[in-house]
Every structure is written in structure tokens, then in C-alpha cells.
Amino acid sequence: MNLLVTGASGFIGSFVVEEALRRGMEVWAGVRKSSSRQYLQDSRIHLLELDFSSADTLREQLRGHHFDYVVHAAGATKCLHTDDFFRINTEGTKHLVDALLALNMPLKRFIYLSSLSVFGAIREQQPYQEIDENDLPRPNTAYGRSKLEAERYLDSIGNDFPYIVLRPTGVYGPREKDYFLMAKSIKQHMDFSVGFRRQDITFVYVEDVVQAVFLAFDHGMNGRKYFLSDGNIYQSSDFSDYIYEALGRPFRVKVKAPLWVLRLVTRIGEYWGHITGRMTALNNDKYNILRQRNWRCNIEPTMDELGYHAHYDLKRGTDLTIRWYQENHWL
């Protein structure tokens, strides 16, 4: 079986590539010319440079290839300019799908990695209820809006295109760079959190996302959208406490600040990013993500239709992640 993974040099994409190799698949790793090849060193990987800015360009780059499956993991989670989210996440997806259709690629399944963020801050009244696939999306970030627009484009094509959308909640694990900042801060003795109202959060370990990807090759219905989490509900302090334990309980100062402090910090971060030309992790989208109180989601359809069952809860996943950060000298 031939598999194309876009965003193959990234966090989730690189794990999908590794699992596909373990399963004996022929793997093409779609990368940008400037992408790191750090996690794509296996000689069995076919590297394929892709330019998502044009469907015509993509069509020529893909011409002559035959893929049974495509996992579209390429995308941007941080951008200096709002338009860039839509250029990369929305238009990039549209161009890839248009190129595959123009080439009459006989795909068995196209997997689009979207996000729970397409729903935004809904069901925020306590007691919190699970976000459901039938709820009306109201994304509160440029990232979430761009992902939702990509989903809607897929929906517009019709049943002739065999796609499934996966909507993971917060994905963590080895190689992940944003949650890593929390671990780095705690190692440096500062445990910082924001907001005083109850926050129910959910997580999914990267290997469980990969599990869902491969289940979706052969299970589920075309056009369906599935949430991914480990099935548990956590409080905002749980993740930092697990990191603290995995680091060996270093001395730490716990600081809980009001949301207006986060608003100020993210505005400064956004401003600094525009000055330096480099977007920081503390930006306007991050503010809206951190202020959101309800991240519950209904994964029962995912379990029933894909046969998905998470193998990693947050404690186990955090222990493995911190160990990787330490062994690879990130911490």
C-alpha cells in the first residue's frame, strides 16, 4: 500500500511516517524545501517536495504517483498574519484535494487532521457538557476558523471523495514544542497558570492520534468527523502536576494570574512577533485557547465507528514525554 503523508517533518506527521514503515507500507513524505529532515532519516522513506501554494504546481509534483492513502497533516498552528492561516491551512488543503481530483487519484481514503478548535468556546456554562459533532462551530481563533473552512471545502466536494476528518484535542508527546514550554518553565521553578474559573481540559497522546489515523483507513464512513481525546477530563493543574512529578519534584513557585495578565502578555508577544518577524507561542490565538474553559468532547462515535480506544492517559503520556525531552537534551 502506498501512503502520502503531508507535513511529514512535523510533530504528528513524523509519527505517522514511522508507524507506516512499521506496517510495511511504501511511504512518501511530503515536505517543504525548507523542512527539517531530522525525523525522516530512514532510507525507506521517499521524500517528495510539495508546494501547496498552487493546485497546478501540486498536480505536476504528484503526477506519476499512485497513492492508496493520503494523510494531510501539513498546516500552520502559529502565523504572524491572520491571512497566512487561511493561505496555508485552508487554501493549501483545497489545492491538494483539487490536484488529487484532477489526477483522478484512486484513493481509498484521505485523512484530514483538523482540530477540536474548530468549535471554539461553546458549552461554557457550568456544569460543562461535551462538545458534540452536531453543535454549531464558533471558532474563536484564526487557526480554528482556517481549519473549519478547510473542512467545509471537503464537505462541498460530495461523496465521490473518500475523506474522513479527525479532530484531536490538545496533542502532546515527544517532539512537541508548545507544551514543552510548560515543562521548561517548571524545570526552571516557575509553574504559571491563568484564570480562576473551573477549566475542564482534554488531551490526546500523539501515538493515539496515529492509532486513529490508521483505524480510519479501513473503518468509519466517508465524510464523517471524529473527535480524539484520551477519554478523560482533567483540571488545568493536572498537566503541570504530572510534569512536576516526572521531573523529580523540583522546587517550584506556583503562580495563578487573572486573565487580563495573560491578555497583556499575549498582546506584547504578538507585537514583538511583528517587530522581529517571528511569531511567539504567546499570541492572540493562544489567549483565546487558554481562556476557554470547556474542552470536553464526545468520542463515543470515534470508539464505535473506528474502534478507537486510547492507550495513554495523561499521566503515562507525560512520563514518556518528559523522559524523551530529557534523553534528547531538550530539558
Automatic annotation (TrEMBL):
Instruction: Tell me which domain of life the UniProt entry assigns to the organism this sequence originates from.
Output: Bacteria
InterPro entries attached to this UniProt entry: Epimerase_deHydtase, Lipid_A_modif_metabolic_enz, NAD(P)-bd_dom_sf
In this chain the NAD-dependent epimerase/dehydratase domain maps to 4-225
Q: Which SUPFAM superfamilies match?
A: NAD(P)-binding Rossmann-fold domains
Q: What is this protein called?
A: NAD(P)-dependent oxidoreductase
